[in-house]
Fold each of these.
Amino acid sequence: MRALNVPGVSIAVIDDYRIAWTGSWGVTTPEAGGQPVTAGTRFQAASIAKALTAVAVLRQSGDAGWRLDADINTTLKRWQLPRSEAQGEAAVTLRQLLSHTGGVTPGGFAGYPRGQALPGLVAILAGEAPAESPAARVLSAPGGEAAYSGLGYQLLQLALEDREGRDFNALMTDTVLAPMGMAHSGFFADLPEAMASDAARGHFGPHATPVEGGWRAHPELAAAGLWSTPSDLARFAIDVAEAYRGGAGRRLTPAQARALLTPQAEGMGLGVVVRGEGSHGYFAHSGGNRGYFAHVEMLADSGDGVALMINADAGQALASLLIAAVAQEQAWPLNDRAQLTPGRAQRLLAALDAARAPKRVLVAVPAGVLANYVGRYQLAPDMQFDITLADGVLQLRLADQPRFPLLPESPTRFFVEAVDAQVSFVPGPDGRATALVLHQGGRDQTAPRVD
């Protein structure tokens, strides 16, 4: 933890379909007001929200008669997904949205500073102010390749809310969280004040810089708005696994649980990552909001699993070590989970290198110089950088991804604090940039200016 600059970690280990033990280390934040992390400390679970949303949708497919292969628009009342040329005559279905194969605008959400006006669900889907993310549109043929789409899950949230006639946290608490015993979990754009004092604060970048305000707000509840603990995530995994093996009294019927874990495309089931035959019923999901990393995985056939939560987005490398240690100690039948594969080792070493690197020093760059860098730069035939200037800070956006601040360490070289990447601008004779160079992963990629 110290080597990777990880402030706090909490973990729950599952053995024989029960929580065998829990462990917590570190603090909610090393800043003033930090407290020891405990088994009850809440973290942002980020995209693991999608796995629980999938359970709610599958329950509706039984209780309310929803067909998973029905057009999503038949379940929506307040807003409709516009048709596009890309989809032709095909409908975008609930099953496709659950498996990220609906062709809907890909990508996740960057969140909002706490205290800022937050968009409602319809504004998020429509891409209207104050939403800062693109609109939900069908950009490729439904039923094709998997393309991870947070907006797809926002469509499912709208369907659930329209069906139930109440807010998402209330319906998820009644239909999923409370019945699974997830008493420390909830779907919140911002954590209620009563729960905030002892929650884990987020930390980003290789030097674990505290997230301003403690965390970013995520009004995109079904895609990224879950707060939880490892023990609660373990309870979710156990409930699904027990249903999968035919257990009664669970949130899903055995048939629904088998549908959840059936591979759809490129390793995706319905709301979870799966492996299919020979994987001992493996299912998993990770989550990574700014300042946090969370992961839960389960072997439904053997009853083995683990859930962990970390209050640093650099925690993925540590998570790999913890999962391998647990799988080895518990003698999981899925052997590769007990191994530190070359890919995991490479990520760990890269994270260690970043954590050991000297902390970058910001320099002042005149606004006139920054203005010379504003424009569009072509990195690849279908990929452009959009550089903008707001409140004296350059902002970088690649394609439809979120914007990231570019922080200056010289008049021409900038770095992105959230990821290990740097950008250099190549000025022309008049000072206006003619290209930028992306420095990332040991590679230098030049993107000529095109505007």
Amino acid sequence: MGSSRFSTRLLNISIASFCKSQQLEKAEATIADAIRLGYIPDVVTYNTLIPAYTHFVGFDAAYLILNRITKSGLTPDVVTYNSLIAGATRCSLVPQSLGLLEEMQRSGINPSVWTYNTLMHCFFISGQLEEARRMFDKIIYSNLTPCQTTFNTIINGLCKVGDTSNALLYFRRIQSRGFSPKIVTYNILINALCKSRKLREARRFLKELKESGHDPNAITYTTVIKWYFRSSRFEEGFKIFLEMKSKGYTFDAFAYCTVISTLVMKGKMEEANVCIEHMVRNGVLDIVSYNTLISFYCKEGKLESALKLLDEIDKGGMNTDEYTHTILIDGLCRTGDIDKAQQHLKHMKLRGYDTNFAASNCLISGLCKSGQYEYALKLFEKMEFKDSFTYTSLVHGFCKAGKFCEAANIMIKCLRSGMKVLTSVQRAVFYGLRDKGLGREVRKLRSAIRIARTYSRYKSELR
């Protein structure tokens, strides 16, 4: 008997492993082999399958496992129903979730705190706030012991619908019952208060968090810093950043990038460079962070600083990606340095970046803005892939140059490729052709638009 139980436990470990790696066929084959060898699966085996089937196949397939449990002579337990309710909730199936609650109660199975936690979440995501509160009250006024997830679910649900006042009332109510909220709960409330622009109250909660014996983490501080900056209260935001730094709290890349971006906007380049040095020393500067900072420098027209960061990437032995170079090309085009932008596109090709589609789009837009329409057209013709932005940039450029026939021809090519040009740009082409008395070209363009629309409708009907 002990050997059989031990083998079933090993079977369940194998099934859990296959389910985690999305290998449901192997999980089912293992169950079939076990039965042939005389090792009977227990309810835990089938309970393990339910979340996997919900996630990778669908709720209906998961629900069928309930029949398999009863046909095997086993009795579903609270975990079986909790797993099914969680699956129905994930699929936003409120009636099925409630039906499962009734079914488990008819079977004589008492709902657990996790049953009500899941149903509370289900009601919140479906917008039924009163029902969600009713589930919370059922936990509080029954013999069940609420857990941290119970409190986080009710507070997070209220915060997400913007009901911060009631979220705070529930928070205080929880504290009055002797429960000590964890850092996750504080972070939920601090974020909600910041979103509501109640920054002073968010600061008070940050202070209360420290006094309660919890250490604020990077999420806590970054949330407050971000919202101070968004509210243009840069000095206060930077003060919190320095406070966080002086107390030895760890930073993530997002916190640093948020602060550096603000310093650049305020023209405090020296302080921004000090922060970048800190990022390098602490090893939190990855290629995504570099790309974020390069993009911000480019938008602010500080190309020298952006190029300096590119040198730092190379010196640090880190590999740039196509986004790094696309950002730089866009920055060079924005400042009108088209020659350097062209050189950088060639540099991308030399470094083996074949998929420079976004970079080419940036350059075409820049060439059109600088009046180099013919070169833009040559680059356009060489491009293997084009999208609506490519065509729109070129059509708009030729319209600005008064070359409406060329703009119309590009627009017709665009329509024949199954893509669209912005309505405002289409109007500009029509107005330009009419002003020049080119009625024949107007009719030709109208015909191309009608054909494109008919073809588009036909394709939709086929689907």
Amino acid sequence: MFESLGSRFSGAFGALRNRGKISASDIENTCIEIRQALLEADVALSVVDSFVQSISEKSIHALSSIQSGSNQAQAIFEIVNTELTEILGGGARRVRFAKNPPTVIMLAGLQGAGKTTLAGKLAKFYKDQGNTPLLVACDLQRPNAVNQLQVVGESVGVSVFAPEPGNGTGNPVKVAEAGIAHAKSKLFNMVIVDTAGRLGVDEQLMNEAISIRKAINPDEVIFVIDAMMGQDAVRTAEAFQNGVGFDGVALTKLDGDARGGAALSIAKITGRPIMFASTGEKVSDFDIFYPERMASRILGLGDVATLAEQAKKAFDADTSAKLEAKFVSGEDFTLEDFLEQLEAMSKMGSMSKLLGMLPGAASMKKQIENIDESEIIRTKSIVQSMTPQERRDPKVLNGSRRARIAIGAGRKVQDVNALVDKFTAAQKMMKQMRNGGGSPLSAAMGLPPAPKKVAPP
């Protein structure tokens, strides 16, 4: 979402770095460029003016204290990074759990913001952490909203409390109260209440949300907003804040092509932190919002912390330990091992998203956009078409076997040959890496081996 903004920031700082010794005039020109970039990204004018004024004053003040031999551009870059992190909320804000369960979370927002889908993602997120969430269907206005929540709940393995069919019938306040009572009786430790939205802010929407909040006294009210709304997102957030009120924000559709001004405006204007971010259609495309990581991505530094977390989730500890034991013992890396690595990579999400988290991703935008996401699927299909013996010992792959595998995978024999050749090369590299601790997948992808470990004295 922030590719265009990130490119503008990179251009501004690139010009600043090329200046050598920086003057107040250089800082002024950089601030003008930043201001224009933020306005074009749909960031609220008041936020832009405050941000630019702050970095201008701090940068000019820093010039007098920075030694001439040091990197002045880097010092100014760090000032911008700090200020950008502050605009986005300063630090990650997590849900406040109730002292006496269940912890009640109420979702509010306009229709179409993605509340119901986000409710399922939120439930799955906390279920994976050992909690026992219950989804409560209080959107009784939108057609099939109750049914949608039931489908979402089933897909993530979370129970749904839905005593009313919805579609314009039923009392959402009574459903919310009954849902809390049900959670207490069945020992759920978290309740997520999905409420109705409208196509626009209106009195009926606010009154219903206010009534539900008064009835259940939630521990957290989270305002769900579509990150692609631009300036309208800020106006809507202010209306909800003045109406029902909320404790934090959840941004949806952060993977969209819009300019992303909402993310840079809401926290500053409302004084409420962005707590969660939804970055795709998959249930796993959801996480706590980290302001410092988002600032890092906007400034072209990537998001290595999130990338590392995703890798840790995807790569099974037992599998990694088994592979390490193989390397130490001198056993060959097999196609079965390779398939396990490919499966883990698939769990991490799309390759374009993963590469987008790397430092300097903005400068590789076209290359990332041209990545063939289905390549891993095609490679997996070839390996999966092999027999267990063929995966363990590729040397038995004669012409007839390769032809059979190609037919089974729906590929050409040349594709099978290419994979086997690459894998054979990777096997050879693995033998050279046994003392280096490198990754088998990185070897298969042609990455250089890690340096050898030095034994302690």
Amino acid sequence: MFSFATIAPVVIAAAAVADGPLSYEYMGQTDGAGRAALTLVANEDLPPFTVVIRGDGQTIRKKVPGMRAGSRKKIAWKQRSRQAHYEMSIESDELSATFEFDVLRPVGKAGKIGNLVVLSDRDEIVEGHKVRYRAPSPLSSYEYKVYDTRGNVIAEGLVTKEIGTGEVFEVTWDSPAEVFMVYVKAENDFGGFVEYKLVPWSVEIPHTEVNFDSGKYDIKPDQEWKVKEALAVALHELVGLQKVNEAVGAQITPRLYIVGYTDTVGSAADNQKLSENRARAIAKYFYDHGFWAEIYYAGMGERGLRVPTGDNVDEVRNRRALYLLTVQQPAPGGQIPARWRKLADARPMPANFELPPYPERFLKHKEERERQQSGGAGAGGGGAEPSGGEDEGGAAGAGEDLGTSAGSPDAEAPGGAADETPPPVDGAPGASAKGCSVSGARSRAWLALCFVLALARRRRPA
């Protein structure tokens, strides 16, 4: 009678006692169906024997009616646990052998492992200092970094824990500084990983109400200073974003969204067209004066009233506009439209660009923004034809794959063509006279989520 020594477990594939009467081979992990397997190789003629494999809470017993030299016998079974240690023995009057091995059951895979789902809204992220994610598949660890709007890392960490499919994990931080980006990289045990760059950064640009002539949407010379001041504020934000991009090594591309609103005086159709054309006029001014980010515009007409009124009510607070600088199309709902028209693509910063002075009337806004960025108290408010054409709907920005915020109710899509001239409505200030003033409220509807999903294949060491 002869015996085999106990063999230490291996990871990928093993062959034991190749020069003895019997060898065995096995894979260090289960197949796609979760089956573990062991293959016996006869190095000489062998009499009948029984193979007993114990482990993983089960016992596998197989009778082998002898083997001829060079023949192979495969034994397979379903593995229950993620990792199992097995002890195998050969039972026979003439044969005796024992050896041990380990098998992993993959719960993930290398390469693409799905998308993380962000469950938090903007309030929870910005005010609550927390982001909740749902795992698309089993994960074994995640690392994170939280950046403020000056490019500083205000929180970072590595968490090692088992996270099942559909389970929720969260990233939290204590710093009161304004958050620019939350970066998360999650991995499984088999070389798969996913990266997510979440950018809750969004700024509502303050501006002064623009007064338009009745039934018109051209910006009069005596009103131009109002748009010029808003442009200056937006340019300061744009330059600041470029500096943060350099600091964090990102390529976050911002977009400018301009929405026009009216009161309820005049017909709804006329107000819709007028609000859209006035929003386009403001957007075109930004483009013509060197604003280099993507620009979109939309009209809401009588929809999205800040102050609810009946029909034909002259309400100045409803005659307004919204200038929003963000990284992703705002989620529709409430006062945010579902569809946008694209005025211009992003372009390089103009040659010899000089940043204009910050408007004095908005210095308080700037101070509040700086306090917010540093974690102090105070709330932030938020020439040639364009090269991009006028495309309906939003388009993904260059350099990053961007995610969208979810869970917001849909708003009705704006109607009317952007270049149509609306018929005049005599004596109707809502559809004609005054059009734009800033909205100071920070809407939860425009949580902008940006993500970059990068997947790679990484082999585990054997």
